[in-house]
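explain this chain.
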Amino acid sequence: MIPDDLRAPHAPRPTRRGLLRAAATVPALLGLGATPARPQDGPTPARFGFETVAAKARALAAAPFDGAIPASPAAIAAIGFDEWNAIRFRPERAFLAHSGGPFRLHLFHLGHLYRRPVTVNLLRDGVPAPIPYSPDLFDFGAMPAPSGMPVDLGFAGFRLNYPLNDPRRFDEAIAFLGSSYFRFLSRGQSYGLSARALGLKAGEPGEEFPFFREFWIETPAQGAAAATIHALLDSSSVCGAYRFGLFPGDATAVEVEARLFARTETAGLDFAPMSSMYFTGPSGRRLADPARPEVHDSDGLLVEAKDGARTWRPLRNPAARAAAAFGAGTPQGFGLMQRERGFAAYRDLDRAYQSRPGYWVEPAGDWGAGRVKLVELPTPDENEDNIVASYSPDAPLPAGVARELAYRMTAVGGGAPGTSALAGVLATSRPSPPVGAPAGTARFWIDFAGGDLALWLRDPSGVTVEATASSGPAPKARLEANRFVDGFRVTLDAPPAAPDPAELRVTLRGGGRALSETWTFGRPDAD
């Protein structure tokens, strides 16, 4: 599930003449003393904004799709994995450094997988200026700097740095690199899962990867606490205008506004898609690693319905592709979470899985009939994303009809934001089935904690387990108080499911109401 820039189409680039004109403007944003180009006499151009990008997206959708990838100069084509990873943007050349704002813009160089050039513009007072390419912006390590490159070469992407963890240091807060992928962090977090602007049959055979053609980054004012990024998205099926509002801090949030246009009627849309990795852990029994008990960027999918009911689905590395859908209609929120925050669960000094963020999506408005979709793919190692979650609307996008989309995405720690009174699933484990159980029986330990469960420990007899299966025999469930976590443990024995694997569901109830979110698990035989 990595960005496939080798086969995804490229973006049209600005003319060399236009970039040369812009070269007089961009140094002013760097504080290098150059004088911005003076506008010619005539009407004052309209201020650049989201509607400008939307007009570009509409026009792009009405034109034939250009999927050709330009031939890279020999010096760029020779940049492989090791060489590309050694290239560093020079921090002393950071854009926005002299604007008075708290953000610093760094660019990613083309090469390796990232051969599609994108244009990156700076916006000042509503006027865009494309950033010309120069090898002087980068430190190439042991590799000689490429020479003779055109100023309209473009870049692979960019990142915005911000004093996220230390007021004296600028840490990466958000990065856009490859197709329509982006990642962002809250304070104290390290990168794990990725977000995407749009999916088309995400995680399914024949998946299409929309990509960004061009970006426009507004120059933040002095003391600004947020940054605004505009982007033009394209694919053979859908074009779109995007606006990202970045609010970095203890709980970094990205507010996304989009307007989509289809070239032809398009089904298989995926809104707010996320890609992650689950290699091994207690909820799956494949490819166990005794030295590292858990290896994953996310350990579960959480979905909250409009009525406040929550569903938790532990992730797995299945033996075969598995897909599931949750809820009906626009949810209150959904996201891939990393609930296990203890180092002892991972024991990995280098990768710091315990500090990986979860991404929590809160839709704005009605996204129409549909479901939250989860796709799990088998992976032989931890180097490939094998998990995809998104909202999949039922209705296709008609050609020429604008579709509005808005949501807020937050990089969270162990759980979703909000004030849910429901207990959550603390852990899911897969011990060996009981002696004498029929072959194929799956046993689960499900630990619930939080909410009012500590109160119910005073009267455990008032708590009951609601355990069901979508088909076949009902699972057997036994409830025990778990005072180590101020909660309860459910031991669930699921009999062999024939002819079809069952979808298992468990909820704790007491006092005539749900006390916990609903734990759900599917295809236990596929592990």
Observations:
- The mean pLDDT is 89.
- The longest strand covers residues 238-247.
- Helices lie at 16-22, 26-30, 50-61, 74-77, 81-86, 453-456.
